[in-house]
Design goal:
Structural class: alpha+beta
Strand content: 25-35%
Keywords: Hydrolase, Signal
Largest sheet: 10 strands, mixed
Organism: Massilia mucilaginosa
GO molecular function: hydrolase activity
Protein name: CocE/NonD family hydrolase
Strand order of the largest sheet: 1-2-4-3-5-6-9-10-13-14
InterPro entries: AB_hydrolase_fold (IPR029058), CocE/Ser_esterase (IPR005674), Galactose-bd-like_sf (IPR008979), Xaa-Pro-like_dom (IPR000383), Xaa-Pro_dipept_C (IPR013736), Xaa-Pro_dipeptidyl-ppase/CocE (IPR050585)
Radius of gyration: 27 Å
Bound molecules: D-phenylglycine
Length: about 625
């Protein structure tokens, strides 16, 4: 007994200097969790390994997989909350996948967060702009190939979904899809950075991108936040000068992607060759696809429709390519869709869509033995009427009815009469780059999500009485009026300068009083609004100076709308020449590259909008007779 007690302890001791942080990352084991997480580095064909987080429901067998490829940190995208429950841990929009037993996969795109390799912003496909052997199509292909061979709990079928940049990577995968990629849902996808998505709208640059570029490309992980030291973004951007001056102030002009943008202000081959609608429209349609977008998508309101339209031509049976438009902000499909700003809808339209439309669509193609889903070619939430509509095609009409801008701030469907006195044949305003029209009421907090996300639904009343905004309004409608398609601006205008921007806003004016929601009395809700940089009027790739005082025609499409202007409402059109600081200012003096305009180039100009015979400015509306 004595001997035994004196014996040294049998178990080895941990050396005091053993490193307390292990070389391989610690993953807590939680036997109570309803999932298993696997973190793997998946090798691509060029040897680069991509960091991939795979969340597998515990006990899964023959489960399908949903893959998202992200520049926004796969680890974080896979962990909204720390929780033993997959539903609480994953993103809100992943609710349906969890409820239906899917394996959820997030992967960092090459060069970002945990992935190896070089990052190139929205890396173009191999071809004229990409001389490497890899792109998002090959990376998606290699990833899917690895997943189906290595995830034993899967049934070998993969779907891809994701919004915005993650929607762009979904579309890229469709350029050359792996055979196991069975269905795709690109949401709010960035498709054409110049025409009307993130970087520019019709040539006008979106200044908020400068901080995005710093955040995304200054480092492999999170880049630095930009601290302007000025509460009002309007004030700061105005003081900064041109967009390149703004960038220079923080060194952002040294970042490669900012240089690329500044070198390509026009719609040249750099932008044209990477526009995904052009790319996908020229390849066979192989994968059932549901393009999803929000009606008030403040970031990518152009591309999803363009990608749908380009690929729809390939869908000869009208059964593979679908479009869904909900009453949402950018990426709103993945969050609560009950309202946008003060505008309310019929319940949580986003959860409803995910549960009743998107999941059955994925299930049909991905789940063993799942029934065929009843997916309409087009599903559109018709705003104003506030009803989901199942449609055969989009747009519903391309027959346009011009709504004329008239003397006396009026708007109606009758062509302006000939013979009106010359003084009533145009309206003018002074557009002063020193006092640009704000895009939301000041102080502008452009980087505050709560302000930014719903901004397209902002009450336009704050602008309608500015002397540098022309406002035209119809009589009260005595019957509802439905538009379903893209309104077309047809503006006859002149300027005393040699360049000009034209912002045109189609607005639904609510009645003076709204009994059910008093704060909407007189509300001016933007239905379709956009900007056009005048120098591109004769060709998007051919900037040309405007001859001072010469009347020219500016023709451009507004974003898609499916809207009913209700009886008792009025239609309004506002015309202005700046939308600041979201869009950089046009100096109104023609310079070769607006990014590098000098302070002296920014000059006041008098702009005139004509409503004279032969110069009938109008917004042409895709009007439809209302269904009985
Ligand atoms: N709209 C964002 C974006 C996409 C692509 C390029 C740049 C920005 C996004 O929300 O991801």
């Amino acid at each position: 007994l004595i001997l035994l007690a004196a014996a040294p302890l049998a178990c080895a001791q941990t050396a005091p200097m053993a490193p307390d942080i292990a070389a391989t990352p610690f993953q807590p084991l939680d036997n109570g969790a309803d999932y298993v997480k696997r973190i793997v580095m998946i090798p691509m064909r060029d040897g680069v390994r991509l960091h991939t987080v795979i969340t597998i429901p515990k006990g899964a067998t023959r489960a399908p997989m949903i893959l998202s490829r992200t520049p926004y940190n796969a680890a974080k995208r896979s962990e909204r909350n720390v929780s033993p429950h997959m539903a609480s841990m994953l993103a809100e929009g992943d609710d349906g996948y969890v409820a239906n037993g899917y394996i959820r996969v997030y992967q960092d795109v090459r060069g970002k967060y945990g992935s190896e390799g070089d990052y190139v912003m929205t890396r173009p496909l191999r071809g004229p702009l990409n001389d490497t052997p890899v792109d998002h199509a090959t990376d998606a292909w290699d990833t899917i190939d690895w997943l189906v061979k290595n995830i034993a709990q899967s049934n070998g079928k993969v779907g891809m979904a994701g919004s915005s940049y993650e929607g762009f990577t979904v579309l890229m995968a469709l350029a050359d899809p792996h055979p196991a990629l069975k269905a795709a849902v690109p949401m709010s996808a960035m498709v054409d950075g110049w025409r009307g998505d993130d970087w520019f709208h019709n040539g006008a640059f979106r200044v908020n991108n400068l901080s995005y570029i710093a955040g995304q490309t200054a480092a492999r992980g999170n880049g630095p936040a930009i601290a302007t030291g000025v509460y009002d973004d309007y004030e700061f951007a105005l003081r900064a000068g041109s967009a390149s001056d703004y960038a220079k102030r923080f060194g952002i002009d040294q970042l490669t992607f900012a240089k690329k943008i500044f070198e390509h202000p026009a719609y040249d081959s750099y932008w044209q060759n990477q526009a995904l609608d052009r790319v996908l429209g020229a390849r066979p349609l192989k994968v059932p696809t549901m393009h999803v977008v929000g009606r008030w998508d403040q970031e990518d309101i152009y591309g999803p429709y363009a990608a749908y339209a380009a690929t729809e031509k390939l869908d000869t049976g009208n059964n593979m390519n679908h479009l869904v438009v909900g009453p949402w902000r950018h990426s709103g499909v993945n969050y609560d869709g009950s309202s946008l700003g003060p505008i309310r809808f019929t319940g949580d339209t986003a959860a409803e869509f995910r549960r009743d439309v998107m999941l059955p669509f994925f299930n049909q193609y991905l789940k063993d033995g799942a029934p065929k889903a009843d997916t309409p070619p087009v599903l559109s939430y018709r705003t104003g009427a506030n009803k989901w509509q199942r449609l055969d095609k989009w747009p519903l009409t391309e027959v346009m009815r011009p709504l004329y801008l008239k003397a006396g701030a009026r708007l109606d469907f009758d062509k302006p009469a000939a013979g009106a006195p010359a003084s009533t044949q145009a309206d003018d305003y002074v557009s002063d780059p020193a006092k640009p029209v704000p895009f939301i009421p000041r102080p502008v907090r452009m980087f505050d999500g709560a302000v930014w996300k719903p901004w397209l639904a902002t009450d336009q009343r704050s602008f309608s009485d500015r002397p540098d905004v022309l406002t035209y309004v119809s009589d009260k409608l005595d019957a509802p009026l439905q538009i379903s398609g893209q309104a077309m601006v047809n503006l006859f205008a002149s300027t005393t300068g040699s360049d000009a921007d034209w912002v045109v806003k189609l607005i639904d004016v609510y009645p003076d009083e709204v009994a059910s929601q008093p704060e909407l009395g007189g509300y001016q809700l933007g239905i379709a609004m956009d900007i056009f940089r005048g120098r591109y009027r004769t060709g998007l790739d051919k900037p040309a100076a405007i001859t001072p005082n010469k009347v020219e025609r500016y023709r451009f499409a507004l974003p898609n709308a499916d809207h009913v202007f209700l009886k008792g409402h009025r239609i309004m059109v506002q015309v202005q020449s700046s939308w600041f600081p979201l869009y950089d200012r046009n100096p109104q003096t023609f310079v070769p590259n607006i990014f590098f305009a000098k302070p002296g180039d920014y000059r006041k100009a008098t702009h005139k909008v004509f409503h004279a015979p032969g110069m009938e400015s109008a917004v042409e509306l895709p009007v439809l007779p209302l269904a009985k």
